[in-house]
Amino acid sequence: MADKEKAKKQVPLRLSASLYEEIARWAEDEFRSVNGQIEYLLTEAVRRRKKQGPKD
Length: 56
Prior knowledge:
α2 crosses α3. The chain has 3 helices and no strands. It is extended and about 35 Å long. By secondary structure, it is mainly alpha-helical. The protein has one domain.
């Protein structure tokens, strides 16, 4: 299972130029790459969703 968690999957992603610029500025503020920032945000969103539990 540890190998599965470490493995990275490449996913093509299209963003509007304005959204990309916002994420790039945010990433710079937090000393991350744009890719790292997107991964961080997605990880946090999934973690929060799991914490909330299933919706009825």
